[in-house]
Amino acid sequence: MRRWDFVAAYLQGQLQDGEVVYCHAPPGNATLGADGRPRVCRVEKPIYGMAQAGRRWQRSLFPWLLEW
Predict the structure, then answer these.
(1) For residue 12, what are the contacts with CB-CB under 8 A and spacing of at least 6?
(2) What 3-state DSSP class applies to 68?
(3) Alpha helices per DSSP H over 3-67
(4) H helical segments located in the chain
(5) What angle is formed at CA 29 by the lines to CA 42 and CA 40, rounded to 5 degrees?
(6) What is the per-residue pLDDT for 37?
(7) Secondary structure letter of residue 22 according to DSSP
(8) Which among 35, 38, 47, 62 is most buried, taking Cβ atoms within 10 Å?
(9) 22-38, pLDDT tens digit by residue?
(10) Contact criterion met (CB below 8 Å) for 11 and 47
(11) Closest by Cα among 49, 52, 54 to 9
């Protein structure tokens, strides 16, 4: 097999222990806090488009490939 195509592979990664990532709410879902500033969302799993998503998925894929 020369090439694999992984659908939604970036959704399979895990953030490192203690790693905390926040992002702005998507357009149309933004709400304001009590102080009038826009709220942010805490990310629990890497999502597509995040700078860390590819590295996190790679970290979980490589050990599996080495065992295979």
Answers:
(1) 57, 60
(2) coil
(3) 53-67
(4) 53-67
(5) 25
(6) 86
(7) E
(8) 47
(9) 888 878 887 888 888 88
(10) yes
(11) 54
CA distances from 22 to 14, 50, 51, 64 (A): 15, 11, 12, 29
Amino acid identity at 49: G
The pTM of the full predicted model, rounded to 2 decimals, is: 0.54
Closest residue by Cα to residue 61 from 21, 20, 22, 4: 4
Nearest to 52, CA basis, from 26, 13, 18:
13
pLDDT at residue 48 tops 70: no
**Quick one: what percent of the chain has pLDDT higher than 90?**
0
Using CB atoms within 10 A of its CB, is residue 61 exposed (0-12), middle (13-18) or buried (19+)? middle
> What are 15's two structure tokens?
């953030």
